[in-house]
Amino acid sequence: MTSSPSLLIAGCGDVGCRLASRMRAAGWRVHGLRRNADALPAGVRPVAADLTAAECPRAWPEGPLDYLVYSAAASRHDEAGYRATYVDGLHNLLGWLAARGQRPRRLLFVSSSGVYGQDAGEWVDEDSPAEAAGFSARIMREAERLALGSGHPASVVRLAGIYGPDREWLLRQVREGRRVRREPPLYANRIHAEDAAGLLACLLEAAARGERLADCYLGVDDEPAPLHEVVDWLRALLGVRHWSAQEEIRRTGSKRCRNARARALGWIPRYPSYREGYAALLDAGERS
């Protein structure tokens, strides 16, 4: 391409804003779609819109859109909320593209590793069965199929548990002294928000170079780990000595996700394990 690629990030929240800043720095023209467009990074072209509303936003970008990232987050965590955000929202967006004759070179749909239902510590990759039974997983798989069947070249990016600034649920649980089951171990997978944005940037840059992308990528760090090991490490780092009488930290599933496909494309996580990621997060908190 001779001109700067154009990108629309639909659902430009935390990860989307991090991605927008990266692509702006690389010379891309970036449009960010979100309800509160005032929260977008400097230089990102605002598209104030609600993806769950059928009417196309007035500020819709003119001209071609080379790339599209759908990274919406449900504001309601019930079945209706998930369907409105991930299926209906994507359906609306595809309709807006069609109405304006815009055909992106690549659509990236941000999904979740929660679509996998494995719960005995199995290793999973992009070709493993994704058959989790909960409504969130069912709806996310439906949205994935919609993206892949949209008529646009598309890839699904299944992100593991995102953590980072303002995503400190586990740190709060550890500070409260919550326990976690040790036997059998509960394997957890995670990715720092900055690495999630970095993976999406890597995929966009590869597509812009003309590389052939797969239909699906797992976004996860290098080291899935038993949750009790993570908790023990954080307790030591934080100096937590007490145990709470409250119930244990709960989570569903226990699996170990591989990131080999993403790494083969050239993606290298800045925070390869929970140690680097949480250490950086806590260090930033101490400085702020």
Helix-strand layout with pairing:
Layout: E1 6-10, H1 14-25, E2 29-34, E3 45-48, E4 67-70, H2 79-99, E5 106-112, E6 122-124, H3 135-148, E7 154-159, E8 161-163, H4 169-175, E9 187-188, E10 190-192, H5 193-208, E11 216-219, E12 225-226, H6 227-238, E13 255-257, H7 260-264, H8 274-287
Parallel strand pairs: 1-2, 1-4, 2-3, 4-5, 5-7, 6-13, 7-11, 8-10
Antiparallel strand pairs: 9-12
Tell me the radius of gyration: 19 Å
**Global geometry:** globular
What low-confidence regions span 5 or more consecutive residues with pLDDT below 50? none
Tell me the fraction of residues in β-strands, as a range.
Answer: 15-25%
Total count of strands: 13
Which secondary-structure class do the elements indicate? alpha/beta
- Biggest sheet layout: 7 strands, parallel
Q: Give the SSE string.
A: EHEEEHEEHEEHEEHEEHEHH
Give me the side-by-side strand order of the main sheet: 3-2-1-4-5-7-11
- Helical stretch tally: 8
Instruction: Give the overall average pLDDT.
Output: 94
